[in-house]
Amino acid sequence: MHHTEIITLLQTEPSIHEINVKGWVRSFRSNRFIALNDGSTIKNLQCVVDFEKVDEEILKKITTGAAVSVTGVLVESQGQGQSVEVQVSEIEILGEANPEDVKLTILSPKRHTLEKLREQAHLRVRTNTFGAVMRIRSKLAFAVHEYFQKNGFYYMHAPIITGSDAEGAGEMFRVSSLDPKNPPLDEKGNVNYKEDFFEKETNLTVSGQLEAETYAMGLGKVYTFGPTFRAENSNTSRHLAEFWMIEPEIAFCDLAGNMDLAEDFIKYIINYALNHCADDLEFLENRLLEEEKSKPQAERSDMVLRDKLKFIIDNNFKRVSYTEAIDILKRSKPNQKKKFKYIIEEWGADLQSEHERFLVEKHFKCPVILFDYPAKIKAFYMRLNEDGKTVRAMDVLFPGIGEIVGGSQREERYDVLKQKITEMGIDEKELWWYLELRKFGTAVHSGFGLGFERMVQFVTGMGNIRDVIPYPRTPGNAEF
Ligand code: 4AD
Ligand code: MG
């Protein structure tokens, strides 16, 4: 018999027709009530067993974690919190789970810390928290595609293996077919990459932007959405070595248009989550409310998950130039300044995440788009402003997260770009194709990158980025 998912059954009227459902036992009470979950929803389906009619051997095997197939009829539920339940006529154990072994895992029914769950990343999706987060992650990914596809963008697959460093930050994972212990050497004693698979040095992509730019200059509006790699040694709750980035790139669009797009896009996907992930968001919100309760009254936040999401949708992002932001930071009260690890003294300094979060959480109290940064602290490809010292960069800063988007209008002038590349000591030979775009029908164009995991963090309220991706890659961590 074909099985039906729990999410569907919970919306089905009771009837005399038999249904079949398959899932994992969350709990089995009084030799009678199975709480069954199949991952389709956070909700469990109650299955009521008549123990007198079931073989004792089978009863013993209905244990937490076991996979079972249940056949029966849907009846109106007597219990609270559910409309229907299954009156079981037949139960089959598909995969046993030995209770003694289960006790040693995170499947055992008690509260486990998120750290503990990370150690069993292969099992954690079976917990309520991770089921909720990963369903939301999937829905958000769909919303990303829906937004761009509805708005005339084409999905462009940027390469994973590249020969360039798009961000010029040198934070790359090398890709090589050479024996690291015994690489071929050239006459000067350097590694001879001519003998490598690609006959040159290559790395995993740090951004699909440069390739996306070439496609925007042919398809008009494109977006990438793929894995991105950074070998930065940042052990924080916001950084991964492997993360997913969404990068739209638009021809004939300036920085103002880029900001409009970022704001509209972010609001769209957050709204999508509110409309399509109600049960999971409710669960995660309750989880956060519990956490809030353990804090002293003064530190409790007045907005919990769904209110925060609605706030983003209902309010304009505040657009502030870098120069204005520096002034605000310089003018901030002495007791606030004392809290900063780095005090911003002068124009030109790079903002640390503590400053970004101050601007968003304390000063403006809403998302902020900072723009027109000093050229010196931003990547080579950004459009130089007429003042000769700032570039048309933009960062979207979010409460609780900090930077969620980085983007810019791109330098479309051949000579200016070439000079910038030389000044920044970048090998022009690696970027000949990128420069050439500026020779053949160059045009104003812009784009940005949204860190998908940071968005999933914001929507789910999870504090650590390691808990919003199935298998996090961080320094020293690639166990699974
Ligand atoms: O600001 P970034 O480095 O910008 C770029 O890569 C541009 N090429 C994007 C573009 O204009 N097309 O990265 C963009 C975003 C950040 O704002 C952040 O959300 C995310 O990517 N990000 C990371 N997320 C998780 N772990 C990391 N190590 C990240 N590094 C960047
Ligand atoms: Mg950035």
Q: Give the terminus-to-terminus CA distance.
A: 35 Å
Name the strands of the widest sheet in spatial order. 6-10-11-16-15-14-13-12
Here the CATH topology of the largest domain equals BirA Bifunctional Protein, domain 2
Gyration radius (Cα, Å) is: 27 Å
- In the predicted model, the low-confidence regions spanning at least 5 consecutive residues are none
**Count of discrete structural domains:** 2
Strand content: 15-25%
Please summarize the sheet with the most strands: 8 strands, mixed
Find the structural class using helix and strand composition: alpha+beta
CATH class of the largest domain: Alpha Beta
* Helix share, percent: 25-40%
Average pLDDT, to the nearest integer?
A: 95
Counting DSSP H or I runs of 4 or more residues, the number of helices is: 15
How many β-strand stretches?
A: 16
Envelope shape: globular
Give a quick set of tags describing it.
single chain, 480 residues, alpha+beta, OB fold (Dihydrolipoamide Acetyltransferase, E2P), BirA Bifunctional Protein, domain 2, eight-stranded mixed sheet, five-stranded mixed barrel, 32% helix, 22% strand, binds 4-amino-1,4-dioxobutan-2-aminium adenosine-5'-monophosphate, binds magnesium ion
Question: What's a concise summary of this model?
Answer:
Belongs to the class-II aminoacyl-tRNA synthetase family. This protein is an alpha+beta fold and 480 residues long.
Secondary-structure topology with pairs:
Layout lengths: L5 H4 L8 E12 L3 E5 L7 E4 L7 H6 L5 E10 L7 E12 L3 H4 L11 H6 L8 H23 L3 E2 L5 E2 L11 E2 L26 E3 L4 H11 L1 E9 L12 E10 L3 H22 L1 H16 L11 H10 L3 E4 H10 L2 H4 L15 H12 L3 E7 L15 E9 L3 E8 L4 H10 L8 H5 L8 E7 H9 L20
Parallel strand pairs: 3-5, 6-10, 12-13
Antiparallel strand pairs: 1-2, 1-4, 2-3, 4-5, 7-9, 8-9, 10-11, 11-16, 13-14, 14-15, 15-16
The structure holds 4-amino-1,4-dioxobutan-2-aminium adenosine-5'-monophosphate (4AD) and magnesium ion.
The site of magnesium ion (MG) has 3 residues, from strand 15.
